[in-house]
Amino acid sequence: MDRLCGSGELGSKFWDANLSIYTNTPDLTPCFQNSLLAWIPCIYLWAALPCYLFYLRHHQRGYIVLTLLSRLKTVLGVLLWCVSWADLFYSFHGLISSSAPAPVFFVTPLVVGITMLLATLLIQYERLRGVQSSGVLIIFWLLCVICAIIPFRSKILSAIAEGKILDPFRFTTFYIYFALVLCALILSCFKDKPPLFSTENIDPNPCPESSAGFLSRLSFWWFTKLAILGYRRPLEERDLWTLDEEDCSHKLVQRLLEEWQKQQASGPQTAAFEQKIPGEDEVLLKARPKSQKPFFLWALVRTFTSSLLMGACFKLIQDLLSFINPQLLSILIRFISDPTAPSWWGFLLAGLMFVSSMMQTLILHQYHHSIFVMALRIRTAIIGVIYRKALVITNSVKRESTVGEMVNLMSVDAQRFMDVSPFINLLWSAPLQVILAIYFLWQILGPSVLAGVAVIVLLIPLNGAVSMKMRTYQVRQMKFKDSRIKLMNEILNGIKVLKLYAWEPSFLEQVEGIRQSELHLLRKGAYLQAISTFIWVCTPFLVTLITLGVYVCVDENNVLDAEKAFVSLSLFNILKIPLNMLPQLISGMTQASVSLKRIQDFLNQDELDPQCVERKTISPGCAITVHNGTFTWAQDLPPTLHSLNIQISKGSLVAVVGPVGCGKSSLVSALLGEMEKLEGTVSVKGSVAYVPQQAWIQNCTLQENVLFGQPMRPKRYQQALETCALLADLNVLPGGDQTEIGEKGINLSGGQRQRVSLARAVYSDADIFLLDDPLSAVDAHVAKHIFDQVIGPEGVLAGKTRVLVTHGISFLPQTDFIIVLADGQVSEMGHYSDLLKHDGSFANFLRNYAPDEDQEDSEALQDADEEVLLVEDTLSTHTDLTDNEPSMYEVRKQFMRQMSSMSSEGESQNRPVPKKHTNPSEKEMQVMKAKETGALITEETAETGNVKMNVFWDYARSVGLHTTLVICLLYAGQSAASIGANVWLSAWSNDAVVDGRQNNTSQRLGVYAALGILQGLLVMLSAFTMVVGSVQAARLLHAALLHNKIRSPQSFFDTTPSGRILNRFSKDIYVIDEILAPTILMLFNSFFLSISTLVVIVASTPLFIVVVLPLAVLYGFVQRFYVATSRQLKRLESISRSPIFSHFSETVTGTSVIRAYGRIEDFKVLSDRKVDTNQKSAYPFIASNRWLGVNVEFVGNCVVLFAALFAVIGRNSLNPGIVGLSVSYALQVTLALNWMIRMMSDLESNIIAVERVKEYSKTETEAPWVIEGNRAPEGWPTRGAVEFRNYSVRYRPGLELVLKNLTLRVQGGEKVGIVGRTGAGKSSMTLCLFRILEAAEGEICIDGLNVAHIGLHDLRSQLTIIPQDPILFSGTLRMNLDPFGRYSEEDIWRALELSHLRAFVSSQPAGLDFQCSEGGDNLSVGQRQLVCLARALLRKSRVLVLDEATAAIDLETDDLIQGTIRTQFEDCTVLTIAHRLNTIMDYNRVLVLDKGVVAEFDSPTNLIAAGGIFYGMAKDAGLA
After folding, report:
1. pLDDT in tens, 873-913
2. Closest by Cα among 1366, 1350, 1370, 1367 to 1358
3. Which residues pair with 838 in a beta bridge?
4. Closest CA relative to residue 1447, chosen from 783, 616, 514
5. pLDDT tens by residue, 1009-1064
6. How are strands ordered across the β-sheet holding 1485-1490?
7. Category of 130 on φ-ψ map: left (φ > 0), alpha (ψ -120 to 50) or beta
8. Phi/psi zone of residue 615: left (φ > 0), alpha (ψ -120 to 50 degrees), beta?
9. Residue 1450 pLDDT
């Protein structure tokens, strides 16, 4: 290099240590300045060029129009090029005029000139590729300025020293160059306009990140605007930015699906193939290793390769940077020990420490940002893939996994992947950091390091064992959790039945049993967690102790000085981070591997064969043909339908009839392709509309339910409503057809749901209509109206192909063709008259049940006013609500409730609003509003503002106040021990060295060890105490919630969606169980570490106090802004999460309808939209953490800077040990400060779970179950006489009366039928009897005892009801009949025999232990009704209430039930709410209710003679 600079006046040496280092005014030689220093920026730009060009080639954002900014940048670039060439030509000029300049004056201008030209071209190329702000060029200009600062100073100093300027031309060009470079740097910090045609021009609220400048992106400054907005007012959904294209669901899911399909294609041909091969081949196939299943993880990796690689690059740079500071610390301690060293060294070191820390911060957060965004994308993609799979799985798969389990895949398992993704890079980064740390330690302490490494290695298997054990607990605990949530779900769905039967204690016991086992495992797992925490806290200390101990003991001449002690300590601190992360990585990995297996198994499940039903070809004239078809619900079950041969011609109306459980619904499913076809062919030509037996209603407006994704055509829509008899209901619903329908159609009666489902089919205008018993849920005359107007030969569907499953005989003569099924086979088919002539089973069946036809025809409905009749759809009372009868009046209009504003279905974060007490006038206002909106369940509201202190107080009380205090004290003790140990180390390192050795080594080592072990023990104790406290809190909070919910009145369940309650039991309890305690421990950890750092630094350099205040203010500011914004973002994220899962569970229950109407694609889009809404709040939340990180670490880096600076300033009064102590503490403060805010914020957002659980533990409860001093007498009621005295009742306070001053008396043993129009108050009467509704005034007496005076269970257990909705719980049949185990085996079999179920139960291999599935889905509706009858027979109480639900049963079964009731309950009082008048014509008396008052009450014959309301009803039904 010296040769390059030449000789003579300008010639100089390349490097001169005396000039540059050992002096108080350092400078660099002119040669160094002109060569290497000038080349640094050029080398950087050329090195970065290939990668940057590659990046630009693949990222086209559209070009940017030439702006003033762009022109200025280009002009500066050209001018810089000119200046360099001027220098070059000046050198040539010198060559000619014989003052030969040194070679460097040719090389440098040439290199710089070409580089400036490159920079100018880059500016233009970036503009064409749409880059608004270039990071590469900003760094280039920054390097140019930094490298020019040194010559800037030197030239002025030398001019002053010489008294003149030696080389005026180069002097001038240099300062012009400096000015231009400085301008270029300033200009490059501004960003250009957005490119043409970019989305930003259209987007109302684009994400500022995509258009942010380089510096803004680097420091996450682009987030500041949202942080300030969030501080000023709570954020709302409209404040959130739109998602970038590459973050949108449809893009991500598409990418993952493509990779997954590649995986499946490369794997073996899937299971569908294997089933076809019988016998030996099958055995051989099964024997193949299963490892060839397509591997979902590989698909994920391939989808997100680029993000993974980018994250890995950032991580690598950051890891390497983290080792610079210990080296700088080592030089700093040497500097302090050497009084002769020039003081600028110290300031330079402090500056370098700050710069290195800042670089580390910026790169670390770029890494975190890229990795967390990738994690979010992974979750989105997994949710989408699961959703798409759920739309096509077979029914057998659906039977195996409940809706809850599938929702878990989406919520829990996808989330686990998101949680583990940030740790992925630790797999390679942790070993790298460990190796580097050991290498540097070896440099300082030599082979003694191996002792420390040995400890680390020995502890790894110990930890492995602990985490394996924790994993097994986790898996078992998940199982308990699943079963507890499943049971809770059933309890909430069947809560009304539980109340009516007084069965709550039995189910309460079941839930508490599961919870007990769950907490037992939780406690074990938490103890293990505490042990592993202990190991990890002790590891770094043990390693330090053993290494230093071995070092000083091996050789007496090994002296422990400050440099060795504190540099090795800071290296051990670096070593601690990957080691601390390892357990998290291991547990995250184990959880993710469980989730991976679950997701993979689900994605590998069988799918419905789309080719199962032939859509293209069909024999001419036919719409549906089945040739030799055999079908089953699952491969391992016997076929449900066998050897079917059916041909249905185009445009015909075909009825399918047969006894309960003969396969009628299965036939419809087979035609839809929902069953697995074992042999034969099915052909269906044309579009299909399907009305299932149990209507599937979406949670959206009534109009949306009818349109079902089709465009609105007013005429056809009106016709659908009219023919399906929905117009009368619209007048009654609060918002007309804009009324929002609750989950599962909760605010519609059964009849209304069925008619909405039918209207959907009519509106769809399909070619083929498959109607699975749509007339069962509606009343006889409404059924007639629907048949005539819709289904029958004169209806709107005339000319379409209609397959109607029915139990109604009256319609059969009007059908074109009848298929009679028995035991899964066609027993007869043909026209009505042919079948009658044929004189088979059908003919006998008809003769017994058909009413007198002439009468039926003549009196049908001629003089009836249709509108009135429709409103009389008496079955409308059939509903999940306590009863919706008040629908006729205002009550229905006031149906939406204030409660809706209370709480939320969202996850743990949105806070409940306190319940408002409203006065009547306010109530009216609310009712008016409700009329306008028709909303039933308002959107979830996110509460805003700070979490109140009393929530923390509540939790502390649940943990136990003593426990809380002990934990705090233990933590304080632990910090004190830790500081003590380090101060002791500092004193030890300052010990005087005599004859090359320190004297009292063993004493120093002993005390150091004692303090360290004390610290470890205190950590372990505090963790154990926390476990005890948190498990106790989890137990108490869950118990309070469960007991309150089981005792809540029915009205609470009607107005609160079950999802909202279930969320409290799943998500919120999960947070209390597993998240709160670790969060609190981490908060304590970081808080005490931050405090001890400040204490140590202030103690060693008191000057530091000056800086503490401004830094604390800055920290406080950042904390306030961050917490306000991030809390609100987290709440928005939770609120938007619920709809994803509720939409999913709704979809899963309605897949057959969605598939039948061919709406799979629309539903995918709907789901994607909901996920995107959720991402819109999750993305800013990730950014907010990065923004916080950069700002807080800036505070931390300032602490490092000032700790080092004050050490340099006070170097004369400080010893090296103190400096080492203070700076090594400062180096770890950044992490602690960052974690502290994060944990405070996490604690705030998670403690809300406590608040939400508390809120639902304090809702009002119903009357006590048992009143000890007031029990009913033994054997009560003896006669069963029921008397209402001046009785009135309303649904909820503030609503109108439903029953008004009812006074009547029913003698013991009397049979009374109750009839009336919809809304007359029939079901309300029965609900009052059971005190589901409490009296507003008056009383009900049974055998003279006022029922309001005794406990609810004493009352309800002595009455029996056969409810309208037959609800069964999953469990054995025995449990469903007798949950308390009070009856003997013979009693149960006798009840089954009387309810005609004995044959069915005996035929099951398990007998009474036959497992009913969730909701009793594996029994037909008729069989479920018979189970309810068997329950009543077992109870055999003196009062029987029959809420007639005979609609879903064929006439034979109906007759059996009526017969059984007449014989078995002969001497009981029977109250029957009748929908078919023929069942009550032989009763003693009939009560006719009208608008909540008794209209008529007499024997049926007298009432018909009187010609009143009852006569009119009997006439309509053809009985008068």
Report:
1. 333 333 333 333 333 333 332 333 322 322 333 333 333 33
2. 1350
3. none
4. 783
5. 999 889 888 988 888 898 889 999 999 999 999 999 999 998 888 878 787 888 88
6. 1359-1362, 1439-1443, 1469-1473, 1311-1316, 1485-1490, 1493-1498
7. left
8. alpha
9. 62
Inter-CA distances, 1045 with 490, 498, 1255, 1291, 1445, Å = 13, 13, 11, 19, 28
CA separation for the pair 880, 497 (Å, rounded)? 10
Pairing of strands 1345-1346, 1335-1342: antiparallel
Under 8 Å between Cβ of 691 and 770: yes
Q: What is the four-CA torsion angle of 703, 709, 712, 716, rounded to 10 degrees?
A: -80
CB atoms closer than 10 angstroms to residue 982: 23
Structure tokens, 313:
């690059």
Nearest C-alpha neighbor of 682 from the set 729, 733, 644: 644
- How large is the angle between the packed helices 343-390 and 1105-1149, nearest 10 degrees? 10
Pairing of strands 1439-1443, 1469-1473: parallel
pLDDT in tens, 1476-1508: 777 788 888 999 988 888 888 999 888 888 888
List phi, psi (to 5°) of 1312: -125, 130
Helix (H) or strand (E) holding 1411, with range, is strand 1411-1412
Residues 1456, 1284: contact at Cβ < 8 Å?
Answer: no
DSSP states along 1010-1053? HHHHHHHHHHHHHHHHHHHHHHHHHHHHHHHHHHHHHTS-HHHH
Is-contact 606 271, C-beta < 8 A? yes
- Spatial strand order of the sheet with 1345-1346 comes to 1297-1306, 1282-1290, 1335-1342, 1345-1346
1180-1218 residue pLDDT tens: 999 998 998 898 888 889 988 988 898 888 888 888 888
What is the CA angle 1419-1424-1429, rounded to 5?
Answer: 150
Distances (CA, A) of 329 to 26, 324, 435, 999, 1219: 22, 9, 20, 27, 9
Q: Could you tell me which residues come within 8 angstroms of residue 1203 by beta carbon, excluding any fewer than 6 positions away?
A: 1097, 1101, 1104, 1222, 1223, 1225, 1226
Neighbour-count burial of 944, counting CB atoms closer than 10 A to its CB (0-12 exposed, 13-18 middle, 19+ buried): middle
Residue 529: burial class (beta carbons within 10 Å; 0-12, 13-18, 19+)? buried
- Please give the Cα distance from 294 to 266 (Å, whole number): 8
- Cis ω on the peptide bond leading into residue 1139 (within 30° of 0)? no
Per DSSP, the three-state class of 1324 is helix
Region class of 1394: left (phi > 0), else alpha (psi between -120 and 50), else beta: alpha
Is 1083 strand, coil or helix? helix
400 Cβ contact list (under 8 Å, min separation 6)? none
The pair of three-digit structure tokens given for residue 1000, joined into one six-digit string: 């009292």
H or E stretch at 1463: helix 1451-1464
What whole-number distance in Å separates Cα of residue 1085 and Cα of residue 539? 16
- The owner of tokens 């074109």 is 816
Length of the chain: 1520
| DSSP assignment string, 1483-1494 | SSEEEEEETTEE
Residue 1216 CA to residue 1218 CA, distance in Å, equals 6
Per-residue DSSP letters for 602-647?
A: HHTS-B--GGGEE-S---TTEEEEEEEEEEESSTTSPPSEEEEEEE
pLDDT digits (tens, 9 = 90+) for 960-1011: 899 999 999 998 999 899 899 888 888 888 887 777 777 778 888 899 999 9
Q: Which helix (H) or strand (E) holds 1442?
A: strand 1439-1443
Beta bridge partners of 632: 676
Q: What is the pTM of this model?
A: 0.76
Paired with 624 in beta bridges are: 648, 684
Q: How far, in Å, are 520, 849, 964, 1087, 1330 from residue 1080 at the CA level?
A: 21, 71, 11, 10, 47
Q: Which of 804, 803, 820 is nearest to 657 (CA)?
A: 820
